[in-house]
Amino acid sequence: MSESIGPILARHQAAGRDALIPVLQEVQEAEGYLSKESVSLISRHLRLPTSKVYGVATFYNQFRFQPKGKYHVTVCRGTACHVKGSAKLLEVLVRNLKIEPGKTTRDRMFSLETVACMGACALSPVMCINGEFHAKISPTKALKLLDSCRQKEIAAAKS
Ligand code: FES
User: Fold this and answer.
1) What are phi and psi of 131, to 5 degrees?
2) Distance from C-alpha of 80 to C-alpha of 86, rounded to nearest angstrom
3) Are 153 and 147 a contacting pair, CB within 8 Å?
4) How crowded is the C-beta side of 109, counted as CA atoms within 13 Å?
């Protein structure tokens, strides 16, 4: 069992189905994602079938089942950002990275996620890379940012 999941489950002793979402959130917060092992431990602890745990977790797009990439890209899909073209922005990122939101590239370099609103609607559309905020981002600018991440990795590999 991972070091972080034990104390989380211990805090939810005799918990049932009502505790499922808080437990999933805490485990994801601690581990960055929900691994197969975590889902199975949660399922046993809460006495719920694994299929039920997956059913609930996959219903909410806040949960991820792969570790984040070295560069975690978050795209805002709130209303203000949608009006300013976040759908196109996301489409371009999906095409470039060849992954859907919630997934991580095979080389673990990038992961992609959508969020409801980043609270900066006046600066829409917005995206973040590893928590660094980018305002009024166009698809072209977004692709340049991905390229600069790739360049950084190439430079680091050479040094
Ligand atoms: S809708 Fe994107 S920051 Fe609010």
Assistant:
1) 85, -10
2) 9
3) no
4) 13
- Best mutation site among 74, 75, 81 for ligand 1 pocket (most ligand atoms within 8 Å of CB): 81
User: And the tokens for 10?
Assistant: 């211990």
Ligand 1 pocket, Cβ-based, cut-off 6 angstroms: 76, 78-81, 117-121, 124, 126
β-sheet bridge partners, residue 129: 73, 132
CB-based contact 89:51 (threshold 8 Å): no
Instruction: Give pLDDT tens digits for 19-47.
Output: 899 999 999 999 989 999 999 999 999 99
Residues 48-73 pLDDT 10s: 999 999 999 998 878 999 999 999 99
Distance between Cα 115 and ligand 1 center (Å): 9
